[in-house]
Amino acid sequence: MTAGAGEAPAAQRWLIAANVVRWRRYGEGGQELRPGTKSYRGGSKVYVIETHAGVGHEQLTTIGRGRHTGTYVTIDMATRNLHTFRAVPVHSPTVLRLYEEADVGGCRRSRQDAEELASRLGRLAVEYRTTHWAVPHPVPCRCHECLTR
To answer: Is the terminal CB of the chain with fewer CB neighbours within 10 Å at N or C?
Structure first.
């Protein structure tokens, strides 16, 4: 649908979308597996609205539909629990409102900036998943790294 005469075009912002890992390692030595995260179901689409550069992008602020309520929530989560980072234009009024409420500095990313950050976050997520646990994977393992091999 296009904007009619006299209507302003819908607001748009370039954000980074990612998906929550279907299974993640958990517990002592990472030998247990849990689906998704405490707040998001595995495979859920989330929008990254802020990276915490002070800690090497290990934590990200995300907006997505909550595991239990299905309503949008804004939470900080570990980068290693996300995959398939990509730049997307966001038009959703709810996501844009939550982005503004989060007060993340009001930075407007261009498409190119969002694509570069998405690429960097994708590489870091793989690195964080492989280095977080210093022990071998459980057998059988359904964590994201094992499922994507």
So the answer is: N
